[in-house]
Amino acid sequence: MVTDPIADYLTRVRNAVHANHRVVEIPASNMKKAMTKILFEKGYILNYKFDDEPAPGTIKIALKYHPVTKMSAIRSLVRISKPGLRKYTQADNLPRVLNGLGIAIISTSQGLMTDKEARSLNVGGEVVCYIS
Q1: Rg of the chain, C-alpha, whole Å
Q2: Alpha-carbon distance 102 to 75, whole Å?
Q3: CA gap 57, 44 in Å, rounded
Q4: Which residues lie closer than 8 Å to 92 by C-beta, 6 or more apart?
Q5: Residue 121 to residue 50: CA distance in whole angstroms
Q6: Opening angle at CA 56, ends 54 and 61, nearest 5
Q7: β-strand pairing of 88-89 with 58-63
Q8: Burial letters 109-120, b for 16+ CB under 10 A, else e
Q9: What is the dihedral of CA 107, 58, 39, 2, to 10 degrees?
Q10: Could you give phi then psi for residue 44, rounded to 5 degrees?
Q11: 3 state SS of 1
Q12: What global pTM score does this model have?
């Protein structure tokens, strides 16, 4: 049993990037699916596939690398709000990652979104992680 599934998700992706793997497979949940969609929309991963054959299912993520330098699109993944210490922020205090070059994933009352989307909708929430 995993006590922090979001940290496990981030760690699996981080380890796959460091090992230069092309595909990583992760147990699925609705929050992980929403995070994967955000990563795809923002260009951090190449593609993804949700397999719902067994009950919880899995997520297969194709990681994105530069064709010449073989550098990953994902430089760092940092978990901010943890089960032992939740981090919440108001709409006017939303964090900026690398002065706008990275993204922060925010869990709001309207679902998971990036810091820029939350700022434009003027909603705050729980700061899940930073991605750059």
Answers
A1: 15
A2: 9
A3: 22
A4: none
A5: 28
A6: 95
A7: unpaired
A8: eeebbbbebbbe
A9: 50
A10: -85, -20
A11: coil
A12: 0.93
Which residue, chain included where needed, has tokens 């709001």? Answer: 108
Give the residues of the chain that fall short of pLDDT 50: none
> In the prediction, which pLDDT does 1 show?
67
**What distance in Å separates the CA atoms of residue 101 and residue 59, rounded to the nearest whole number?**
26
Residues 41 and 87 sit within 8 Å (Cβ to Cβ):
no
Residue in the block written with tokens 């497979």: 25
Q: Cβ–Cβ contacts within 10 Å for residue 79, how many?
A: 18
From 102, 106, 105, 103, select the one nearest 125 (Cα to Cα).
106
Listing DSSP states for 40-106 in one string gives: HHTTSEEEEEEE-SSSS-EEEEEE-B-TTT--BS---EEE-SBTTB--EE-GGG---SGGGTSEEEE
* The length of the chain, given as a count of residues: 132
pLDDT tens digit sequence for 81-108? 999 999 999 999 999 999 989 999 999 9
Q: State CA 42 to chain mean position distance.
A: 10
Widest CA span in the chain: 42
- Beta-bridge mates of residue 6: none
Predicted confidence at residue 54, as pLDDT, reads: 75
